[in-house]
Amino acid sequence: MTASSTGRTAIIAGNWKMNYGPREAAKFVQEIQPALSEALQAPGSPLCILCPPAISLAAVRAVLDIPDAASSAQIELGAQNMYFEEKGAFTGEISPNMVHELCTTVILGHSERRTYFGETDELVNKKTLAALRHELRPIVCIGENEQQHESGETAHIITTQVRASLANLTSEQAREIVIAYEPIWAIGTGKAATGEIANNVIRQIRQEYQAIYGAEAASVVRILYGGSVTSDNIAEFMAYPDIDGALVGGASLKPDFINIVRNSRQVRH
User: Fold this and answer.
1) Which of 9-18, 67-76, 152-161 has the lowest average pLDDT?
2) Which residues, including other chains, have CB under 8 Å from residue 234's CB and lie 6 or more apart?
3) Which residues are annotated as a binding site for substrate?
4) Higher pLDDT pick, 228 / 169
5) Of 106, 111, 161, which is closest to residue 130 (Cα–Cα)?
6) Strands 178-181 and 222-225, bridge-based pairing
């Protein structure tokens, strides 16, 4: 696996959302794994993370762990959410230590969690710190909605979310997390931001992060773009120096996800 010209290894993560139960998930991974693993052998390939629903994590883990299968060393498994407590009377939740048994990564603060389930920056921060305590790589999502975007509030929203969702990290933790900029107005709408727009906001995120945790942390933290990413537009995003990969939604449910991974191999300018 080769790092980009920035020195940061790119990440392409597929968020399956509420799709594919255990049987469907296992079948889909069996179908795409040979070609996906082959695509990940090429120089400049990203780290690939599959994020099925919680109920399907074990089924996908079993496929990835099959002996003598096509190499899956670069295909990691991630959860879509978790709670911050280790155990207790929290019906329906999964804990960080449970996630850690199967996964390397967990998505936190996705816009759908914030919008539909009322998750706050403070809650996302608690989950982030819990993930790090359990040696999980958090992908912490931030982004503005359409009204905020249209009214020119993007910079304010980004600053607020970075400072609150990513508070209280140690210097080592500040290097380990991943941030995903996902403009809510571009998720599931087909309205992908342009590479220039995404890079400008991600540059602001990096500058804000630098103000909190210093230049070294800001230089190594990986920041992804998420919002109607396809195999046709991924190369545009990856051409920009501050964009370190993508959090892919609907397109990760199709074999074309392999082409997203292939087309993400892009020399930065």
Assistant:
1) 67-76
2) 12, 246, 260, 263, 264
3) 15-17, 188, 228, 249-250
4) 169
5) 106
6) parallel
Is 110 a catalytic site residue?
Answer: yes
Query: What is the DSSP code string of 183-219?
Result: -GGGSSSS-PPPHHHHHHHHHHHHHHHHHHH-HHHHH
Question: Do 56 and 25 contact (CB within 8 A), yes or no?
Answer: yes
One-character DSSP codes across 169-187? --HHHHHH-EEEE--GGGS
Give the separation between CA 244 and CA 224, rounded to whole angstroms: 5
Residue 54 token pair:
């919680």
Superfamily (CATH H level) for 11-37+47-264: Aldolase class I (3.20.20.70)
Other beta carbons within 10 Å of 111: 23
Binding site listing: 15-17, 188, 228, 249-250
Q: Which of 76, 182, 208, 236 is catalytic?
A: 182
Predicted model pTM? 0.94
Q: Which of 110, 112, 176, 236 is catalytic?
A: 110
- What does the pLDDT average to over 30-55? 94
Q: Answer yes or no: is pLDDT of 3 > 60.
A: no
pLDDT at 70 over 70: no
